[in-house]
């Protein structure tokens, strides 16, 4: 199958193409994605610029109908789309179907938001003067999405962009073009005017950079690495262009002595290893107080080693493969590094299965300190480290001792500690007796410090990025 660009309503081909390979079975090639030149991105930007005024003037009902149609088709096809996602990204099939369903729910939510857009009428401090505060679309929005949630993250950027009246150019991840293409096909059948939504496949260094650097793009929303996000922030800042960044995480899960052991193990197992640990919200640092440390490590290690690693489409699989060879090599590098720094390693070996793929046993690294690189740098794989601490105060200090601040969790029966943790942990999202990964689609998503920059994503808070505010005064 060819994954073509969608520009101004036309599916266009390009000569160069990149293979989309199944990480569970490297002999399985799902299709070939366009490896587009910069000129294709420039055409897509021009198409969006031409279409933007018409869509900005559309009615709430028009926007509702389009977004609702997209959400309805995604939900009707969630099993098919989930299987595609699992084949190309490596999530287990239930995870893939769940992510596809979430994408549909996101479009449904923002369909409703089109009918809930409101302004304000305020009294002025000056007699006889009225004040109106309204919101309008930003214009042309460039979206750059990652491979680890290849349908949900595009959905939670595209849906609000369209709901608030913007034209869109999407540059999806190179590793997972299939889901982006399937989503683009659904959008193309929704009744959306030509040019309002465009998708261009290719490398970040070519089409991504063209999108970011273009003075005809009014805003950039990016999810990906800290390094790329920092470069995008600098480029957008130089142009005074609106920018939204979601980047890395080194998320702590604090386990206190009074925690329910089963709850703590369940939350840590899910947060650290499910989705092969390839989530920016994964629990990569398990910060455990002295009194429960040994029991927790023993119980978690037993549960972890019992997880079934295999082909993402197999019913018995609990952990799918790492996304590609490069990511697998990175995971193994950090495991070797942790061992060289004194960490004790359980699991973490490469595995052979009936199909050739990038299989890695989940890994737990114990006897670590927070200054070790494995505790300061994002790895993005099925591995977590354990840090032993004396008490809650030390646990909170260690949890906050990181350049990141996306998600954080605590397992405790103490209302006092849970309340204090929610107020004082330096993270955009805090969980109590729950995994650090797993958030609702109708509430704001984002972090603190080096994890995020700009307005929050998802929920009604998305309007802060995808709209601009105007204040109008009238003398009666």
From TrEMBL:
PROSITE patterns: ALDEHYDE_DEHYDR_CYS, ALDEHYDE_DEHYDR_GLU. The lineage of its organism: Bacteria, Pseudomonadati, Pseudomonadota, Alphaproteobacteria, Rhodobacterales. Signal peptide: none annotated. The active site is at residue 246. Keywords: Oxidoreductase. This is aldehyde dehydrogenase (NAD(+)). GO terms for molecular function: oxidoreductase activity. PANTHER family: ALDEHYDE DEHYDROGENASE, ALDEHYDE DEHYDROGENASE-RELATED. It comes from Phaeobacter piscinae. InterPro entries: Ald_DH/histidinol_DH, Ald_DH_C, Ald_DH_CS_CYS, Ald_DH_CS_GLU, Ald_DH_N, Aldehyde_DH_dom. It catalyses: an aldehyde + NAD(+) + H2O = a carboxylate + NADH + 2 H(+). It is an enzyme of class 1 (oxidoreductase). Residues 17-471 form the Aldehyde dehydrogenase domain. Its EC number is 1.2.1.3. SUPFAM superfamilies: ALDH-like. Belongs to the aldehyde dehydrogenase family. The keyword Oxidoreductase applies. Transmembrane segments: none annotated. It holds the Pfam family Aldedh.
């Amino acid at each position: 199958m060819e994954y073509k660009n969608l520009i101004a309503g036309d599916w266009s081909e390009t000569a160069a193409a990149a293979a989309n390979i199944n990480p569970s079975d490297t002999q399985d090639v799902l299709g070939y994605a366009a490896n587009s030149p910069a000129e294709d991105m420039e055409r897509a930007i021009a198409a969006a610029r031409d279409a933007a005024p018409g869509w900005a003037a559309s009615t709430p009902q028009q926007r509702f109908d389009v977004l609702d149609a997209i959400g309805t088709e995604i939900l009707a096809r969630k099993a098919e789309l989930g299987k595609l996602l699992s084949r190309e990204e490596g999530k287990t099939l239930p995870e893939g179907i769940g992510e596809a369903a979430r994408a549909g729910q996101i479009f449904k939510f923002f369909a409703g938001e089109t009918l809930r857009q409101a302004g304000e009428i305020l009294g002025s401090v000056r007699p006889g003067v009225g004040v109106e505060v309204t919101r309008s679309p930003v214009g042309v929005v460039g979206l750059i999405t990652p491979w680890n949630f290849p349908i949900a993250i595009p959905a939670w950027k595209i849906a609000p962009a369209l709901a608030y009246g913007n034209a869109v150019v999407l540059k999806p991840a190179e590793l997972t073009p299939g889901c982006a293409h399937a989503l683009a096909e659904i959008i193309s059948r929704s009744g959306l005017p030509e040019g309002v939504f465009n998708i261009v496949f290719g490398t970040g260094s070519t089409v991504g950079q063209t999108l970011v650097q273009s003075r005809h793009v009014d805003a950039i929303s990016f999810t990906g690495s800290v390094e790329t996000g920092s470069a995008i922030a600098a480029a957008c800042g130089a142009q005074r262009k609106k920018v939204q960044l979601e980047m890395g995480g080194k998320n702590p899960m604090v386990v206190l002595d009074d925690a329910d052991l089963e709850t703590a193990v369940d939350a840590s197992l899910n947060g650290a290893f499910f989705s092969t640990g390839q989530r920016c919200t994964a629990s990569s640092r398990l910060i455990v107080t002295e009194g429960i440390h040994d029991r927790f490590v023993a119980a978690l290690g037993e549960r972890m080693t019992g997880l079934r690693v295999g082909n993402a489409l197999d019913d018995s699989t609990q952990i799918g493969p790492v996304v590609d060879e490069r990511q697998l090599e990175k995971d193994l590098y950090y495991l070797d590094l942790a061992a060289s720094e004194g960490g004790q390693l359980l699991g973490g070996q490469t595995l052979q299965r009936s199909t050739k793929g990038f299989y890695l046993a989940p890994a737990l690294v114990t006897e670590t300190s927070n200054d070790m690189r494995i505790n300061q740098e994002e790895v993005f794989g099925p591995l977590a480290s354990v840090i032993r601490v004396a008490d809650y105060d030390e646990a909170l200090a260690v949890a906050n001792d990181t350049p990141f601040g996306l998600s954080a969790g605590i397992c405790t029966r103490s209302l006092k500690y849970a309340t204090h943790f929610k107020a004082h942990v330096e993270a955009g999202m805090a969980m109590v007796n729950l995994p650090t990964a797993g958030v609702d689609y109708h509430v704001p998503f984002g972090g603190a410090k080096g994890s995020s920059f700009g307005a929050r994503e998802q929920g009604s808070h998305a309007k802060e990025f995808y709209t601009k505010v105007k204040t109008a005064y009238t003398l009666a």
